[in-house]
From TrEMBL:
<feature type="transmembrane region" description="Helical">
    <location>
        <begin position="437"/>
        <end position="458"/>
    </location>
</feature>
<feature type="transmembrane region" description="Helical">
    <location>
        <begin position="29"/>
        <end position="49"/>
    </location>
</feature>
<keyword id="KW-1133">Transmembrane helix</keyword>
<dbReference type="Pfam" id="PF02460">
    <property type="entry name" value="Patched"/>
</dbReference>
<feature type="transmembrane region" description="Helical">
    <location>
        <begin position="238"/>
        <end position="255"/>
    </location>
</feature>
<feature type="transmembrane region" description="Helical">
    <location>
        <begin position="407"/>
        <end position="431"/>
    </location>
</feature>
<keyword id="KW-0812">Transmembrane</keyword>
<dbReference type="GO" id="GO:0016020">
    <property type="term" value="C:membrane"/>
</dbReference>
<feature type="transmembrane region" description="Helical">
    <location>
        <begin position="507"/>
        <end position="527"/>
    </location>
</feature>
<feature type="domain" description="SSD">
    <location>
        <begin position="238"/>
        <end position="395"/>
    </location>
</feature>
<comment type="similarity">
    <text>Belongs to the patched family.</text>
</comment>
<feature type="transmembrane region" description="Helical">
    <location>
        <begin position="465"/>
        <end position="487"/>
    </location>
</feature>
<dbReference type="InterPro" id="IPR000731">
    <property type="entry name" value="SSD"/>
</dbReference>
<dbReference type="InterPro" id="IPR003392">
    <property type="entry name" value="PTHD_SSD"/>
</dbReference>
<protein>
    <recommendedName>
        <fullName>SSD domain-containing protein</fullName>
    </recommendedName>
</protein>
<feature type="transmembrane region" description="Helical">
    <location>
        <begin position="539"/>
        <end position="562"/>
    </location>
</feature>
<dbReference type="InterPro" id="IPR051697">
    <property type="entry name" value="Patched_domain-protein"/>
</dbReference>
Length: 571
């Protein structure tokens, strides 16, 4: 029975990409230089990085207009805060404060003896805290200048309940009148002097970070800024991992693309493929910073992700390039490469981008920023793959035609419901067979179920961070299956078995390369101490593992059993 084909879009796009490949092949230097200049121009947006940082925990990691915020607004309107009669019980926020716990090492003071040396140490400790001086320009101030006002004539009133004698109900009661620790609070004003309060809190942290024992009293401390500072420090700890990641990616790409033939070696091609992904991150992030999109700590995950996508596209292009006729002109070789590979890359790019754009509908600002930065970076990665990287393929092809050693190249070049439906729609439009598109969609659902199940086995909670990665999962899980399905459908072999063999022969190794390179791109996050980055690694590892397994094992088997996905029925 004849099968329905939906190649009304796929065939014109293939011709369009073939013509575009011929254009890039004819003018490679333009397509090499323009992305570099664009990256340099857009990359200057990192100048605004400090201004765009937005790591406020409540603002970024709580839902917009959530019930808690509405209830707090109700309390704020009905129980307004009075600066003149401060009471911590009437605060509708955490407040601006410093606190410390002083622990006595020995001979704890008792209620009967308040003049012990240990208690004198507490008095001296309190005096040291209140005497901490901050210099702000020509002005200097202490805690007494910013402390919250307390009207001693109007103390906070507590609800007094009737006394209840329960002594007859309990036996063997042990009473202890000693004190092992004392907790002190220092609340600052919540008005226009909040900047001074933050400066004083920072000085407070510096004072106690140098010593944990003062006058024989062991001190533990915390401020309203501590949690925020630790949160921001997590992002700073990950920055050195970028260098390690790109080094691993370049090393793996170079090693996997090395050949014994010193002329047809693809060492520089692999290096420029990784560089293309780096330029995509630089351009996209710079543009977002120029526009004014907040830079949240979760966005720091994106470069690791983009590196894996860029290297994956690179391996697909290299594989198709190597299947072209070496005796053809480089312009025609690139045209044939784009005809075979560009549609596959376009499918995965569209599914990834749409998955992230759907994530913009979430009420969490941190998720919105992450999705916007990452989706834009994926688009730039796609554009640079078919321009910058394609242009370098042409230059490398010219070197090969000139029979020059690969080392001489340096003389030529100096440098989940809705989302799944969208994936199905894109697959139906670009994979010229509806049944194959259904198998790709089934693969997506299978990967999501597998990832969700192993999340439970790997002690990954279903929280905001894992939700972000699950959204990513829907887009990434389609990549490997889409590559194999498109190659299977496009094959001219007569039987389904031969189609599957040709698809795996052409794309099996690039898929393994892409999977390994993506895992290498995020493996360094497993060493991070932050829960966010370790969770990101775990879920991405599962996504890539299950996605590649489906693309290489399940999809070829299913397509072979249902041979009508090809041009003719299989055996």
């Amino acid at each position: 029975m004849a099968c329905c084909h939906t190649d009304c879009i796929e065939e014109p796009l293939s011709k369009l990409f073939k013509n575009f490949g011929r254009l890039v092949g004819s003018h490679p230097y333009w397509f090499l230089i323009i992305p570099i200049l664009a990256s340099a121009a857009l990359g200057s947006g990192f100048y605004f990085l400090k201004d765009r940082e937005a790591n406020d925990i409540e603002e970024q990691f709580t839902p917009l207009n959530g019930p808690a915020k509405q209830e707090r607004q109700f309390v704020k309107e009905n129980f307004p805060y009075d600066e003149l009669t401060f009471s911590s019980q009437r605060l509708y926020t955490e407040g601006t404060y410093a606190s410390l716990i002083a622990v006595f090492k020995s001979n704890a003071p008792t209620n009967a003896d308040f003049q012990t040396a240990e208690f004198d140490g507490i008095i001296n400790l309190d005096k040291k805290v209140t005497d901490i001086t901050v210099r702000d320009g020509k002005e200097q101030f202490t805690f007494n200048d910013i402390r919250a006002n307390r009207n001693e004539k109007a103390p906070a009133t507590e609800v007094i309940f009737p006394g209840l004698n329960l002594s007859s109900e309990f036996g063997g009661i042990y009473r202890n009148d000693s004190v092992l620790a004392v907790r002190l609070f220092y609340y600052a004003q919540e008005d226009d002097s909040s900047r001074k309060a933050h400066l004083w809190l920072e000085e407070f942290l510096k004072f106690f970070s140098s010593s944990s024992t003062i006058n024989g009293v062991e001190v533990s401390y915390f401020t309203s800024l501590s949690r925020q500072q630790e949160f921001e420090k997590n992002a700073e700890d990950v920055i050195p991992l970028f260098t390690i990641t790109y080094f691993l990616a370049i090393t793996f790409s170079v090693v996997s693309c090395m050949r014994l033939d010193c002329v047809r070696n693809k060492v520089w091609v692999a290096a420029f493929g990784v560089l293309s992904a780096g330029l995509a991150v630089l351009s996209s992030f710079g543009m977002m910073l120029y526009i004014g999109v907040p830079f949240v700590m979760t966005v720091a995950n994106s470069p690791f992700l983009i590196l894996g996508i860029g290297v994956d596209d690179m391996f697909i292009l290299i594989s198709c390039w190597q299947q072209t006729n070496v005796h053809d002109k480089v312009e025609e070789r690139l045209a044939d490469t784009y005809k075979e590979a560009a549609i596959s890359i376009t499918i995965t790019t569209l599914t990834d981008v749409l998955a992230f754009y759907i994530g913009l509908m979430t009420p969490f600002r941190s998720v919105r920023s992450f999705c916007l930065y990452t989706s834009t970076a994926i688009l730039f990665c796609y554009l640079y793959s078919i321009t910058f990287f394609g242009a370098f393929l042409v230059l490398n092809g010219r070197r090969e035609n000139s029979n020059r050693h690969w080392l001489t190249l340096s003389n030529t070049i100096q440098n989940i419901g809705v989302t799944t439906a969208v994936m199905l729609l894109i697959s139906l439009l670009l994979i010229p067979n509806p049944l194959c598109s259904l198998w790709v969609t089934f693969s997506i659902a299978s990967v999501i179920v597998g990832v969700a199940g192993f999340m439970a086995l790997w002690d990954v909670n279903l929280d905001t961070i894992s939700m972000i990665i699950l959204v990513v999962c829907i887009g990434f899980s389609v990549d490997f299956s889409a590559h194999i399905s498109y190659a299977f459908v496009s094959s001219s072999k007569p039987s389904a078995n031969e189609k599957a063999v040709e698809a795996l022969f052409s794309l099996g190794y690039p898929i393994v390369q892409g999977a390994v390179s993506t895992i290498l791109g995020v493996v360094v996050l497993s060493a991070a101490e932050s829960y966010i980055f370790r969770t990101f690694f775990k879920i991405m590892f599962l996504v890539i593992l299950f996605g590649s397994f489906h693309g290489i094992m399940f999809i070829p088997v299913f397509l072979t059993f249902f041979g009508c996905c090809g041009d003719s029925n299989g055996d």
